């Protein structure tokens, strides 16, 4: 390691790695590829379902799959949501978090078969759950739709597949730690706790009445912030300084960002229940937490955009595939945080409540931020682990433009469409049918952008799978470039 | 930050403390709610659900109806729920004490159903609404124009008719 580490002070810059495939890397190659390949397969499945869901929703009176029980919107939307979150989001972050922490802590994954086993369990349980959703067996709670017997399997699989970053943190040889490590440890530890408690109180021993809805809102906000948010923030903290070769500006603020993010995120859940038949104090706690969450958003904005703004960072980021995706994500996170705070307040919230706006905010976090960062990370990590180059530069361009434009169009349609929709709904003299008709343009935009996203993901999958197949050389002999 | 134990302890608190305050204390506050009369000696509300309605809720859940329909009426001043005729009074926690699971919903692609039973126009009207202009005719047997509801459609209709929040409750009295 470099001198920075011996000095023992955090420098805002991850340690430099060797360009040769290290032993650390060759050990985690197997589990990494398992997680990565399954994540991309699920992403493709979710994108196909996304197109179907957009078409179904856009034409209530006669979609292309009219009167088909399996493909009713209620089935397709639930399956799409779960596959995107648990299939793509979790598998991909299992892979990335494992890689990040073993890089930062020189961790040797000795019992990799455990992680592989966890990955196999995770994906089998997921398949089973999604098949049951289509068969009409779901619970009615968003992101906990899988029948309750799937929950414990997913939890055990998570411990096998997703707990390694904590082991890596415990065994790291240096005393020095880096921001990415904190965020990954938080994600890997907070999720299983949250998931088990939510499973217990919602599906196994249901709390009485609306307390189920309260527990559910707490679960969803933890899942989105502490798994997607924290994992993706870890990646940005790693890749920005790593690829730019400079330290994070204002890095001394990063611990504040970390703790304020972790401490406030768990309280934001009830902001999704404003106006619901739950105690008022609870709703107020949610509003305040959303407002407080602006603190980590501002600090990460200083850290990320400050780093990118100095010495032509933006143009360098634009010309580097990894950073192009990662900085797109960093901007999306800032935007997400600002919207989250503003639309946490009651006045604005009551306008957009029950419209597509909340879905837009979620897309901003899980797609425009987390997924784009994951794509960027893949362009950095995969060549190192497979020892070969990306087969096609053209496909990389198709991937970026299709996903970037698709994401922007989707999010604008959901947010602006939701706002317009909410404004009309607030006026009781406008009938529900009229409101639905007025939203049909936005639904068309959503359908087109769902296709765009699918195109981008196919390009990404072709490129990535081509590269994995091409790398027939033994892992230990692989080289970067 | 260098110590794993204190890092994990902090994260544990960040998960457990909100859970305790938000979820456990609302269970303490609301857990003992049950059907109650609005005035001394009055009838108990919410009333017990008919068995067919309970079966109908299972159909509602299995088709994922909750992805398009909410079941909650906001108080006046937040949106236009009451003006729109979704309910005669805001929903309160007591309205949901008998529902398993509670299906508040998050998105209104279709109208709110919290008080649907009170505004539905007869059983034929409910079945017409379930069909959604031909989207859900798989719930019906027989030829077009002479459709016969299947068991699932009958249960679903009974469930929808059972959704009522038009009674006085201690927390939300109806204006006379």
Word description of this protein:
The complex is a heterodimer of chains A (481) and B (176). Chain A has 481 residues and is mainly α. Chain A has 18 helices and no strands. Chain A has helices spanning 3-7, 23-58, 73-105, 112-134, 150-162, 164-170, 179-204, 211-244, 254-265, 280-292, 294-309, 313-318, 321-342, 346-352, 357-386, 393-426, 432-438, 440-470. Chain A starts with a helix and ends in an 11-residue tail after the last helix. Mean pLDDT of chain A is 91; it is low at 1-9 and 473-481. Chain B is mostly helical. Chain B has 2 domains: 1-32; 36-162, Orthogonal Bundle (Cytochrome Bc1 Complex, Chain D, domain 2), CATH 1.10.760. Chain B has helices at residues 4-30, 51-62, 116-119, 122-131, 151-162; strands at 140-141, 148-149. In chain B, strands 1-2 form a two-stranded antiparallel sheet. Chain B is globular and about 70 Å long. The interface between A and B is large, with 86 and 70 residues.
Low-confidence stretches of chain A: 1-9, 473-481
The fraction of residues in strands of chain A falls at under 5%
- Given the structure, what is the number of helices of chain B? 5
Q: Tally the helices of chain A: what do you get?
A: 18
Straight-line N-to-C gap of chain A: 22 Å
Biggest β-sheet strands, sense, barrel of chain A: none
Poorly predicted ranges of chain B (pLDDT <50, ≥5 residues)? Answer: none
In short:
The complex is a heterodimer of chains A (481) and B (176). Chain A has 481 residues and is mostly helical.
């Amino acid at each position: 390691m470099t001198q920075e580490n011996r000095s023992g002070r955090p420098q805002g810059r991850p340690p430099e790695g060797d360009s040769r495939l290290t032993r650390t890397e060759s050990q985690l190659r197997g589990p990494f590829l398992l997680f990565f390949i399954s994540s991309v397969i699920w992403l493709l499945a979710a994108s196909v379902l996304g197109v179907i869901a957009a078409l179904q929703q856009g034409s209530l009176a006669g979609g292309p799959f009219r009167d088909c029980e399996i493909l009713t919107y209620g089935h397709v939307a639930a399956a799409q949501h779960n596959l995107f979150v648990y299939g793509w989001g979790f598998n991909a972050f299992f892979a990335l978090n494992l890689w990040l922490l073993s890089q930062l802590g020189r961790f040797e994954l000795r019992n990799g078969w455990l992680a592989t086993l966890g990955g196999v369990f995770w994906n089998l349980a997921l398949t089973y759950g999604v098949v049951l959703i289509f068969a009409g067996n779901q619970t009615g709670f968003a992101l906990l739709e899988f029948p309750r017997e799937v929950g414990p399997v997913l939890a055990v699989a998570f411990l096998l597949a997703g707990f390694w970053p904590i082991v890596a943190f415990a065994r790291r040889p240096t005393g020095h730690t880096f921001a990415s490590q904190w965020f990954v440890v938080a994600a890997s530890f907070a999720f299983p706790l949250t998931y088990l408690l939510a499973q217990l109180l919602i599906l196994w021993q249901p709390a009485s009445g609306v307390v189920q809805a309260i527990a559910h809102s707490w679960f969803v906000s933890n899942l989105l912030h502490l798994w997607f948010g924290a994992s993706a923030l870890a990646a940005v903290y790693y890749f920005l300084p790593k690829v730019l070769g400079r330290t994070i500006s204002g890095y001394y603020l990063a611990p504040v960002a970390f703790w304020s993010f972790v401490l406030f995120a768990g309280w934001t859940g009830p902001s999704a229940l404003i106006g619901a038949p739950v105690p008022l104090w609870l709703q107020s706690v949610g509003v305040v937490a959303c407002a407080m969450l602006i603190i980590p958003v501002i600090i990460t904005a200083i850290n990320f955009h400050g780093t990118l703004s100095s010495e032509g960072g933006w143009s360098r980021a634009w010309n580097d595939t990894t950073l192009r995706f990662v900085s797109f994500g960093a901007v999306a996170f800032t935007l997400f945080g600002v919207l989250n705070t503003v639309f946490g307040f009651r006045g604005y919230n009551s306008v957009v409540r029950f419209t597509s706006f909340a879905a837009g905010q979620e897309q901003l976090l899980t797609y425009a931020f987390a997924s784009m960062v994951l794509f960027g990370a893949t362009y950095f990590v995969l060549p190192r682990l497979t020892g070969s180059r990306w087969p096609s530069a053209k496909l990389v361009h198709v991937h970026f433009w299709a996903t970037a434009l698709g994401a922007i169009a989707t999010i604008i349609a959901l947010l602006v469409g939701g706002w317009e929709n909410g404004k009309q709904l607030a006026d009781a003299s406008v009938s529900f049918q009229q409101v639905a008709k007025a939203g049909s343009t936005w639904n068309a935009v959503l359908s087109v952008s769902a296709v765009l996203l699918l195109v981008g993901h196919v390009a990404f999958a072709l490129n990535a799978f081509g590269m994995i197949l091409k790398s027939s050389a033994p892992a230990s002999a692989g080289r970067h470039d | 930050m260098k110590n794993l134990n204190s890092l994990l302890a902090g994260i544990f608190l960040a998960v457990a403390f909100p859970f305790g305050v938000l979820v456990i204390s609302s269970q303490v506050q609301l857990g003992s709610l049950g059907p109650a009369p609005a005035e001394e000696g009055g009838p108990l509300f919410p009333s017990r659900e008919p068995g067919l309605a309970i079966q109908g809720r299972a159909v509602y859940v299995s088709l994922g109806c909750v992805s398009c329909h909410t079941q909650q009426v906001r108080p006046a001043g937040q949106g236009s729920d009451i003006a729109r005729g979704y309910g005669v009074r805001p929903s309160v926690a007591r309205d949901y004490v008998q529902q398993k699971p509670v299906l508040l919903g998050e998105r209104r692609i279709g109208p709110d159903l919290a008080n649907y039973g009170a505004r539905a126009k007869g059983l034929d009207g409910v079945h017409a609404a379930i069909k959604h202009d031909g989207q859900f005719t798989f719930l019906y047997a027989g030829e077009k124009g002479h459709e016969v509801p299947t068991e699932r459609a009958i249960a679903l209709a009974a469930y929808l008719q059972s959704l009522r929040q038009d009674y006085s409750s201690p927390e939300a009295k109806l204006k006379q």
